[in-house]
Amino acid sequence: xxxxxxxxxxxxxxxxxxxxxxxxxxxxxxxxxxxxxxxxxxxxxxxxxxxxxxxxxxxxxxxxxxxxxxxxxxxxxxxxxxxxxxxxxxxxxxxxxxxxxxxxxxxxxxxxxxxxxxxxxxxxxxxxx
Length: 129
Description:
mainly alpha
């Protein structure tokens, strides 16, 4: 089994942290501290969860890799509930704006989209040359 994430996933994760920093800074400049904290909290939770998806899905989809045991699925489900718990605490207890936390949760899909667009443009550029 791979212990290290693939190059593409590493690139997506690094892009995600950069996007998160820029979005948090934008929240601070355009709104206030609670907006920036909400974006940062949601994004950090989402990117932390995204990091472990490589290992989990590698066990499910790759050949010559030991199949996940039942407790791997339980651990993954527990991670999901922990993520939802952190989001609920950020909104309910810390009083962070719901919209800013949700915006932070969109960082991984945005990073995936940007990575795919960069890859497509790179391929398109290489076929023209």
